[in-house]
Here is the input.
Amino acid sequence: MSENEYANALPMRPVETEPPRTRRSTTVYTDTVRKFYEGGDDVMEIDLFAADIKAPTLRMGLQKAIADEGLGDKVKFSIYQSTGKAYLKRIK
Here is the structure.
């Protein structure tokens, strides 16, 4: 096997062990939904870049938090991955 056989492979380096996985606490999403719902604004913006969170992760976290809080008919959200913005909206 020649060294150039895998010239297109991603760069790698050896490590002793894999680092432990970290997760955001689900309370982050629950607290976000509660704060929005208890506040007076009808629409709030979340900056994905400032929050250092990926759109799919935020989507799953908000969906679960809204369902767990029983607010499915009172709160909805939209995520625009291309702009890095998400919006919580009060349903009237």
